[in-house]
């Protein structure tokens, strides 16, 4: 239940500051999450990325203000748009009418309300899914592989299905170059972009990698990363990769709020062993979620 309260704190903060500059770092701090985990949990629970949620709330507030004497330009500026033209385009895209048309017609649709993140709400979204994790403490792991940025699977601009396969296609033909590999298991490791390197808030780092005994003789062009020791909740995704998003939505949107667990600031890990069969119905991938 604590995670529901954390998301609700974020929603309440957004509602109280709709006309202000809203930054993911501030909102995630209000909620009590790291930037990366906050966006993942928020998107899975609410159904929109943080950016899209704020935009929708601002536009619905703008709709309600059309019933006042306030100038449309002032409404647009208060909603965070740089011009009346850009506001009109976004408004029409959402409400299928321009602000002027809505004001003239006196249209007053039922507005979107502030979301209450409840167990019942999540059950409605994810009813019928039942996955319970096993828990395991893992030691520190050194990994080597191909690294790249991608946009989160829970963002409307997601590009994971372009970037991540390309990283694996670069890494797997060169796997034999990693001379100090510890096992035949491959790892997909997802972690937060360093603040100085962030170009947009829903970016993440992904490494297609394998565990190594040491960082000696790293193949040219590959990167290194150290996964800290700690506890993980381990889920098993069953089925082809095109349903992987459903598993992640379940974990962050349904299981986590009910689990009583807190997220630990550490990478998510995808564990690819001999059970993984590309795009086969009986394929299995273990998903490691850092918890404390």
Helix and strand topology:
Blueprint: H1 2-16, H2 24-31, H3 35-46, H4 50-65, H5 72-78, H6 84-95, H7 99-105, H8 119-126, E1 134-138, E2 141-151, H9 160-171, E3 181-192, E4 203-212, E5 223-227, E6 230-238, H10 244-259, E7 268-272, E8 284-290
Antiparallel strand pairs: 1-6, 2-4, 2-5, 3-4, 3-7, 6-8, 7-8
Count of all domains: 2
CATH architecture of the largest domain: Alpha-Beta Barrel
* Helix-strand pattern: HHHHHHHHEEHEEEEHEE
Helix content: 25-40%
Structure annotation, total helices = 10
Shape: elongated
Annotated CATH homologous superfamily of the largest domain: Regulatory factor, effector binding domain
Low-confidence runs: none
Rg, Cα atoms, Å: 22 Å
Order of strands across the main sheet: 1-6-8-7-3-4-2-5
Under CATH, the topology of the largest domain is which? Multidrug-efflux Transporter 1 Regulator Bmrr, Chain A
Strand count, sense and barrel status of the largest sheet are: 8 strands, antiparallel
What is the averaged pLDDT score? 86
- The span between the termini is 15 Å
Structural class designation: alpha+beta
What keywords describe this structure?
elongated; Multidrug-efflux Transporter 1 Regulator Bmrr, Chain A; 292 residues; alpha+beta; eight-stranded antiparallel sheet; 8 strands; single chain; Arc Repressor Mutant, subunit A
